[in-house]
Design a protein that fits this description.
93 residues, mainly alpha, 4 helices, 77% helix
Length: 93
């Protein structure tokens, strides 16, 4: 049951939903290649700063994803409400 899964913390889209499209995996591979390049070129301290920057950008993206998820979910609920309340779809008495 979905309510049990939500309550029990079994649903966590940001960790369980991974895009399957080729472009996603290519972008990740490219980022890994670039990070490897800089790991070889930068001092240890500078590379650690670059990693921290990367972590902060990921945090920022996760916050944005969360807000977009909430907005999309709310829009879906409003759409269902509108459909349910539409006179054409109301049960006939």
């Amino acid at each position: 049951m979905i309510l049990d899964a939500i309550f029990d913390g079994q649903i966590y889209p940001s960790e369980t939903v991974v895009p399957k499209c080729k472009a996603f995996w290519e972008a990740n591979e490219a980022a890994t290649t670039i990070m490897s390049y800089f790991e070889q070129k930068l001092s240890k301290e500078d590379y650690e700063k670059l990693e921290r920057l990367n972590d902060r950008l990921a945090d920022s993206q996760n916050i944005q994803n969360k807000e977009q998820f909430k907005y999309g979910f709310a829009m879906g609920v409003l759409l269902m409400k509108e459909v349910y309340e539409h006179p054409e779809f109301k049960p006939k008495e």
